[in-house]
## 1
Amino acid sequence: MLNGHELIQVGVNGEEQLVPDFRKNLSFKDLGNLISEADTAICVDSYLQHHFWANRKRAIVLFGVSDPLIFGHPENVNLLKDRKFLRENQFDLYYSNQLCPEAFVSPQEVMDIVNKWQ
Amino acid sequence: MRATCGIPTKNRYDTLVLTLQGLAFQTTKDFDIIIVDDSDEPKDLRDLREYQCVFDLFNRYGINWRVIYGKKLGQHHSHQIVQDEAKTEWIWRIDDDEIPEPDVLERLLYQGTDAIGAVGGLVPQSVYLSALPTDLRWNPIDDLSIPNIQWFWHPDGQVKNVEHLNSSFIYRKGKARYELGLSPAAHREETIFTHEILRTGYKLLVEPRAVTWHFRNGHGGIRSHSDARFWMHDEHIFSQRLQEWGVHCDPVYPVVLDCGKGDHVIVKSLLPELKKKYKKIVLATCYPDVFDGEEQISIADAYMRFGNLDRFNAYRFMIDEKWTGSLQSAYRKLFQL
C-alpha cells in the first residue's frame, strides 16, 4: 500500500493504533498543517473529510449509513456500498444507528482506489 | 414604600420555593407577593411541606401573599395579571428560578426616585461571573446582540442608565403594558416592556449592588416552549416595535453552530460570503479553534442573547425542509447566500 508513501494515522486517545506513526489529539491548526503536507486521506464520513475538502485536498471517504449526496463533497472520492444501507432519517443524532459494518465497502475496494490513484 | 412582588411560574415547584425563601429573608418586609401559577397541572402550594414553611415565614413577617392561576398564554400574560392586580406604586418582578440576595428589594427601591421608571440589579447566570468589559455599551436598544450588563460584575459599583432591562427588576405600575401579542415563549417581553417605560420619559437604571442569582431551571417556564416559530414570531413583533420607535438597527446576523466540527469547517468556508452579505455577524461556536482569530461567543451565551436556538440550526432546517441536497447547500440556503 505504501508504495513510496508515508502512512500516518490520526486519532484521539483510546483509539487502537494501526500503524507505527500514530498522531493523537492534534489541534485544528496542527491537523491542518499535516493535511497540507498530505496527498490524501482515507477516512469515514467524519470531520476529517471536511477538513481535507476545506484544504482543497482530495480524500477517500467511506460512507455507510449516511448519504454522501448530503454529507459528502463531490471533490472527494466517496465510497458507498449500496444506498439500501442509508438510514431513513439522515438528520438524526449522529451517533444513533451508526454501527453497521456490513454497510461499508471492503478493504480491497479501498485499496483498488488507492492503487488506481498512484 | 410598600411594593408588590410578582412571580409568574410554570412547572417549577422545585425552584419556586427557593425564590420564595429569598423573598422571606429580604431586609425590607414591606411588600406583598402575587404568584401567578401557569403550571400544566397546578397544585395547591399549601399542601406542600416546603411551601408551608415559607408561607409561615411570610405570615410571621407580615408579607401578604396569594396565588392566582394563569391563562396558559405565557409569562407576559402572567406579568400583566400582576400589574393589573397590584395596589402598590412599585412592582418587583422576579422569575421562579431566581434567588435574590437579601438586600435586593431595598437597594432597588432606594434608587426609585421620581424620575425613575424601572430599576434592575444584576442577574448573573452563574456564580462565576466576569467583570463588565469597559468597552461594552450599556443595554442599547439598537443592538441586542451586545451582552446585557446585568450579566456581569461591575467593579465600579456605580448605578448606570440603560435603554432596556432583563429578567428581574422593579418597575412603576401603569406606565407601560406588557406586549400580549407575543407568543407563549414571550421572547423579548421584558425588553419591549422596559423600553416602553423609558419612552414615557422615565429613566431605567441598573443597580449593580443588587444581585439576583439566576439559576436557569432547565425545565418549565419559557423552556416549556420549544417551537422555534414562537421566537421568530416574537422577533418579528420586536422588529415592528423598533420601527414604531424609530430605532434604526444595523442588522445583526447570528451564526450559531451548535453542531459538529465538520459543520464548523463547512461554515468557515462560507464566512467571506457571510461577511459580505451581513454587516455584523455574531458567531457562536462549539469549536472556537476552527475560527481562530474571529470574535466568537459560546452556545450558552447565544442562548442568553437569542433565546431558543432551533431556528439557527441547520439540522432542524434540513428536517423541516426534507432536505436532499448537500450539507453545504443547506447552510447556504439557511444563511440566504
## 2
Amino acid sequence: MKNQTDAPLTPAVLHILLALFGEELHGYGIMKQVERESHGKVKMGPGTLYGSLGRMMEAGLIREGDRKVDPGMDDERRIYYTLTGLGRKALEAELDRYRDVVAVATEKRLPSNGFADGI
Amino acid sequence: MASDRAIGRYRRWYARLLRLYPRPFHERFGEPMAQTFTDLCRERREANEGLLGFAVATFAETTTGIMRENMTLLMESKAVIRWVLITAALLAIPLLAMVLNLGVPDPGSGTEGVHWGPMDFATMGVLILGAGSCSSTPQVGRGTSRTSLPSGSRSRRGWA
C-alpha cells in the first residue's frame, strides 16, 4: 500500500501547504499568501479554500491552531491553521515530484519559455 | 464606496447561504468563512472597488463548494450506495426479462411477457430508492457526528 504522503496533491492543496510552511495563518491570510506566492495567478474563493482545509485537516496535513486576534486587522478572533509533520512530508514529496519532472524536461532540452517555436 | 452597513448586509446574506453546507462543515467553518468574506469585502472597499460583482462571484463560487460538499457526503454514505445498487439490481430483472423475451401473461394488455416503458422503470426506481433513503436517513447526514467532517476524497484521487 502506498504511503499517504505519496499521493499527488491538487494545486489548491499544494498552494495552501506552501503558504503554511513556516508560519501559521488564518483563512484570509492563507488566501493572500497564496496570491502573493503565485504572483496573482492563483486566487481561491472561500468555498475552495475551506473545502480544501476541511479535507486537509481530515487527512492530517494541517491542524487548527489557536483562535486569536490578528493585530494587523480588526478585533475579531480568528482560527489559525498550522502545518503538521505529515503535511510537511506531503509537501516535500510533491516538490520532489516536481523536481523530477523538471529534471526530465531539462534532460530533453525542452525550452523553458514555452513551446511556441515549433516543437 | 461601500459602507460598513452594506458589508454587514452582504455578510448576513452570505451567512444564510453557508447554512446550506452539511451541518458538520457549517459548524466548523461557517464562522471563519463569513469572517473571510468580510475581510475580502473590506479589501475591495479599500481598493475603491464595487461590492456587487464580487459578492455575486463569491456567492456562485461558494454555491459550487456547497454542492461539492453535499455530494461528497452523499456519495460517502454507504447506505445510499447500497440502495442504488439494490435498485439497479431489482430493475435489471424486468429489463432482462424484456431483453430475453421471458415472462408471464400480462392480463392488462392481453399480451404475453414483460413490457415496461421508460416511465415504469423511472417510477419503480424512484419508489425503491425513496424507500431505501427513508430507511437510511439517520446515516445520511443528520445522524452523523456533529464534530466530524465528511471524509476527503484522498482514497479516490489524491488529497482533497
